[in-house]
Design a protein that fits this description.
Immunoglobulin-like, Thioredoxin-like_sf, Thioredoxin_ResA/DsbE_sf, globular, four-stranded mixed sheet, 18 helices, 4 domains, single chain, alpha+beta, 447 residues
C-alpha cells in the first residue's frame, strides 16, 4: 500500500466541530485502510447513441495515448453499457474518452471525473461532452459548482455552441469550411512542403482574423458565446476561493497550461489564469497536504517560467547504454540543444532536420544536440531517425518512463527545444534553426 492521506472537511475543522466522535470515526477509517487501497471507485457508463462505437478509454487525466496506453484502460460496452472499478491510494482526476472518436477524428469529446470513494455514472454522446455524475464527496462539491455556473452562463453558452456546430453552412463562410476540410485530411509527411506551407499560411490568416471565418450572423453568435466563455475562469477562481475542493487543483494545472499561450495567441487574456495560480500560491497550497497534485503543480510552474536567463532543470533520462542518468551529465561544459521530438510529430521532425546543418558547423566547437524521443516502440524512433538522417544519437523516453515531457512543460505536445549554455542557463526556447544559430555562435564565442 502507498502513503495514507486523510482528508477532513475544512469548513468543519475551522468551525471547531471536530468532536471526539468524529476523531474516533477517522481512526477507525484509518485502521480499515491497512493492507488495501484507500480509494475504491465504481464506474457505470452507457452509450446514449452508437455514433462512436462501443469502446471507451478510462485513464489518468493528461495521459497521452499516442505514447502511453494499456489494455486495462479500454472498456467495451455490452448492450450499450460498460462498468469497471478503479482503486488508487489517493483521489485522482481521470478522464473518459470515446475511443473510436479519438482514433478517427482530429478532436474528440472527453470528460473529467475524480476517482474517489463512491460511484461515477457516465453517459457518452456522439455530439457533445459526456455527462458525468458522482456520488463521492468531492464530486458532489463540484456538481454544486457546475449548477451555479450553468445558471449564470454555461447553459446559454453551450446552446449557442450547439447552434454553431449544427448549422455550419449558415454561420461559417464556405471558403473557410472548405479549408478546414482540406486541413483535416492534410498528410503533411507525403505532400510537398510548399503546398503544406501554403495551407498552413491560410489557416494562420483565419486564426489571426477570426471575423473572416464567419458570416455576419455567425459572428454575432460567436461573440456572444465568447463573452459567456470569458466568464468561466474568473468564476472558477472566485468560487474556489470560497469553496476549496480537490477539483480546484486540476483547474490550476489547466490554467498553467493555458498561460503557455500568453505570447502566442492574439488578445490572449492571461489575467484569470494568473488569478488561479495566485489562488493556489496564497491559499490552496496549504490544503490537501501530502497529495501528489502539489508536486505536479510545482513542476508545471517551474516549466512555465522557463525563459532565457533562467537555469534549466535537471531530470533523469535513459542513456544509449540503457542506464538512468541525469540530463546534466550529458550536457555539462557544452552549449547544448535539448531536442524533445517524436516520430509521430511532423513539426518536431521538420525543426530537428533544420538543425542538422547547424550541428555540423559547430559540433567540433563545443556544441552538441541531446535528442530525446517520446515513443511507444523503440523501432519507431530508430526508423524516423534513420529516415531524417540525424547525425546525433537519440535517447528514448518510452511510455513516459521518466516524465520528461511533463517536467519540461511540454504536456501532450509532440516536442520542444531548449538551448542551454555551458553553465546550465537557458539561452533560448525557440525551435527555429535560423533564430538559434546566431545565439549558438555567440555562446561559443564565434565571430
Amino acid at each position: 500500500m502507498g502513503k495514507t492521506y486523510v482528508y477532513i472537511n475544512i469548513e468543519e475543522a475551522k468551525q471547531g466541530n471536530m468532536n471526539k466522535k468524529t476523531i474516533i470515526t477517522i481512526l477507525f477509517a484509518l485502521a480499515a485502510l491497512v493492507g488495501q487501497a484507500q480509494v475504491k471507485c465504481h464506474i457505470e457508463g452507457k452509450f446514449v447513441d452508437n455514433k462512436w462505437g462501443d469502446e471507451v478509454v478510462i485513464c489518468k487525466m493528461g495521459t497521452d495515448l499516442r505514447v502511453n496506453d494499456a489494455p486495462e484502460w479500454h472498456h467495451k460496452a455490452v448492450n450499450g453499457r460498460f462498468e469497471c472499478d478503479i482503486e488508487t491510494d489517493v483521489p485522482e482526476m481521470y478522464e473518459v474518452i470515446p475511443y473510436k472518436q479519438y482514433v478517427e477524428t482530429a478532436s474528440y469529446y472527453y470528460g473529467w471525473f475524480l476517482v474517489e470513494n463512491g460511484t461515477v455514472r457516465i453517459e457518452i454522446y456522439g455530439d457533445k461532452s459526456p455527462k458525468i455524475e458522482s456520488t463521492g464527496d468531492e464530486g458532489r462539491l463540484h456538481q454544486a459548482m457546475d449548477s451555479v455556473a450553468g445558471v449564470r452562463f454555461r447553459n446559454e453558452m453551450e446552446r449557442i455552441n450547439r447552434e454553431l456546430e449544427e448549422h455550419k453552412e449558415k454561420y461559417f463562410k464556405p471558403e473557410f469550411l472548405s479549408l478546414m476540410q482540406i486541413a483535416e485530411n492534410l498528410d503533411r509527411e507525403s505532400l510537398p512542403k510548399a503546398y503544406v506551407d501554403s495551407i498552413e499560411h491560410v489557416m494562420d490568416f483565419y486564426y489571426d482574423n477570426e471575423r473572416e471565418s464567419y458570416t455576419d450572423e455567425g459572428w454575432q453568435l460567436f461573440q456572444r458565446a465568447n463573452s459567456l466563455d470569458s466568464l468561466t475562469y474568473p468564476f472558477r477562481s472566485e468560487y474556489y476561493a470560497e469553496h476549496p475542493m480537490l477539483w480546484a487543483y486540476y483547474h490550476v494545472l489547466q490554467s498553467i497550461e493555458m498561460l503557455k499561450f500568453a505570447n502566442v495567441y492574439h488578445n490572449f487574456d492571461a489575467t484569470p489564469h494568473e488569478q488561479m495560480v495566485a489562488l493556489y500560491e496564497s491559499k490552496l497550497y496549504n490544503l490537501y497536504k501530502g497529495h501528489p497534485i502539489h508536486e505536479h503543480i510545482t513542476t508545471a510552474l517551474t516549466a512555465l517560467r522557463f525563459q532565457p536567463g533562467k537555469p534549466y532543470i535537471d531530470y533523469n533520462v535513459r542513456n544509449t547504454d540503457g542506464q538512468i542518468v541525469p540530463i546534466s551529465s550529458l550536457i555539462r561544459g557544452k552549449v547544448a540543444l535539448i531536442d524533445l521530438w517524436a516520430s509521430w510529430c511532423g513539426p518536431c521532425r521538420r525543426h530537428s532536420k533544420a538543425m542538422i546543418p547547424v550541428y555540423e558547423r559547430y559540433k567540433d566547437k563545443g556544441f552538441t544536440v541531446v535528442a530525446i524521443a517520446r515513443e511507444r516502440k523503440r523501432e519507431d524512433m530508430e526508423n524516423a531517425a534513420k529516415k531524417d538522417g540525424y547525425p546525433w544519437q537519440s535517447l528514448l523516453e518510452l511510455n513516459d518512463e521518466n516524465d520528461v515531457w511533463r517536467k519540461n512543460g511540454a504536456g501532450n505536445g509532440g516536442g520542444a527545444m531548449f538551448l542551454i549554455d555551458r553553465d546550465g542557463t537557458i539561452l533560448s526556447t525557440s525551435t527555429d534553426a535560423e533564430e538559434l544559430e546566431p545565439i549558438i555562435k555567440k555562446a561559443l564565442n564565434i565571430e
